[in-house]
Design goal:
- With 139 residues, this protein is mainly β.
- The chain is built from two helices and eight strands, in the order αββββαββββ.
- The chain folds into two domains: 44 residues, no CATH class; 83 residues, Beta Barrel (OB fold (Dihydrolipoamide Acetyltransferase, E2P)).
- The strands form two sheets. It has a five-stranded mixed beta barrel. Strands 2-1-3 form a three-stranded antiparallel beta sheet.
């Protein structure tokens, strides 16, 4: 993989390639997602890209009925709510993302600790489109 800056833009470029990437500190070994140019653990700037497995567990979630503009544009809202959650990746870091393929009408059917895997969601067409990060239950 070509070396890229440790920025949100680079993170989104990797998502477009269907890669879940973060950073690893060469000084202390801490891993972070989204990427960071400085390690918040030891304050070192000796970072490298690392690819995550895409597997993790649900640590928190909520069903959203009042959506932000980007999700309204994707078709979500009061009549079509969606689930957002915090996923703890196998490698340790946590990240927020949409939780796909779950029964949002019955949130009691979901549980903390639910095994998840990464799902890349294409939204929009052409240059206006983007790849978004999501997770879905492992089957």
């Amino acid at each position: 993989m070509a070396q890229r800056d440790f920025t949100n833009t680079s993170f989104r470029e990797y998502l477009a390639e269907k890669c879940l990437m973060g950073t690893r500190c060469r000084s202390c070994g801490a891993v972070h997602v989204p990427p960071r140019p400085l390690c918040p653990t030891c304050l070192a700037s000796d970072m490298e890209w690392t690819e995550f497995s895409g597997r993790g567990r649900l640590t928190a979630f909520t069903v959203i009925y009042v959506a932000p503009a980007s999700m309204i544009a994707a078709g979500y809202g009061r009549e079509k709510p969606y689930c957002s959650g915090i996923v703890e990746l196998e490698e340790g870091p946590r990240i927020s993302a949409q939780i796909l393929n779950v029964d949002v009408a019955h949130p009691e059917s979901m549980r903390i600790g639910l095994p998840l895997r990464v799902a890349f969601v294409r939204r929009g067409e052409g240059e206006d489109g983007s790849m978004e990060l999501g997770f879905e239950p492992e089957r």
